[in-house]
Amino acid sequence: MSGADEPVEIAWEAARATNHANWEERVPLHLDAYDIASLRDDPVRLSGVVETDMETMRAHLGPDGLAGLDVCHLQCHIGTDTVSLARAGAARVVGVDFSASALEAAAALARELGVAARWVETDVLAARAAVVRELGPETVFDVVYTSIGAISWLNDLDAWAAQVAALLTPGGLFYIRDGHPVLYALDEDAETLELRYRYFGDGRALAWDEDTTYVGDGRITHTRTYEWPHPLSEVVMALLGAGLVIERLDEGRTLPWRFSDRMIELPDGNFAWPDEDAWRVPCTFTVVARRPA
Q1: What's the domain count of the chain?
Q2: Which residues are bridge partners to 287 per DSSP?
Q3: Were 214 and a residue from 98, 137, 257, 275 both cysteine, which residue would form a disulfide, CB within 3.0 to 4.6 Å?
């Protein structure tokens, strides 16, 4: 992967358009590379991401978990995690993404699996207005869910957190598990744990050029993408600034994708740093927050 060591100035609209072209191209590659067959073969199977996330969410949802709850999945991509949330018991699931191709694939998957779901095409930074437009002004959710590899694509976490709060019903729960910003500051090609990229952000983006994605062997032509570094403090303060109450903050040592060639695959399909490095750096963070009743 080729990344800019120094951040670049780029308007959100231009960066968004570049990223959109890249993610549109990822859809057919991910339909081949994601383990969709296992969802087809086993009617109660959950994606590995949702299975992991449910272990944490259950402690904050009560004994019935998602049963009977309305769930909004932000940045849902091709819907494997969205349909898994429905299988985990959600009464209604709504997936939000900016890629029309991804939502078409998600809708087709849901139909094939017999899962009732709605899909809203929008930038996540305008999610509330789009949900109101598509589903009505009374629409709010018991749970808003985001996972994984999501918020580095956003330039403004205050705007993001405001959308989350506006989508939640009073007393509703927000859950996010994402790549840890310390992980994203590491040189993914180094033979040891070495910092290369910025941990702290200043509004500028990091530019990447890569003709592959995080899974599968396919190639894409829209290779340029832009991402923004967000320290963990920025994530937490954005959610607090939107009026949410933090109930949990965790840091994890495994990832559902191979960030570096040095990572080893675990029996459960996740990836970790080898040996003592697994104890030296976090791979993910998890925040559970709630909108006050």
Answers
A1: 1
A2: 176, 249
A3: 257
CATH number at residue 144: 3.40.50.150
Quickly tell me which residue has 């040095």 as its tokens.
262
* Tokens 């078409």 found at: 104
Q: Provide the domain limits for residue 68.
A: 2-290
Do 254 and 266 contact (CB within 8 A), yes or no?
A: yes
Q: Is 28 helix (H, G, I), strand (E, B) or coil?
A: helix
Q: In which region does residue 8 sit, left (phi positive, over 0), alpha (psi from -120 to 50) or beta (all else)?
A: beta
Question: For residue 10, which of 181, 219, 225, 171 has the smallest C-alpha distance?
Answer: 225
Q: Quick one: tokens of 175?
A: 């859950």
- β-strand partners of 255: 271
- pLDDT band, very low/low/confident/very high, at 217 (cuts 50, 70, 90): confident
User: Which residue, among 88, 33, 96, 31, has the nearest Cα to 65 in the 3D structure?
Assistant: 88
For 128-193, what is the HEC assignment? HHHHHHHHCCCCCEEEEEEECCCHHHCCCHHHHHHHHHHHEEEEEEEEEEEECHHHHCECCCCCCC
pLDDT in tens, 12-65: 999 999 999 998 998 888 787 778 888 988 999 999 999 999 999 999 998 899
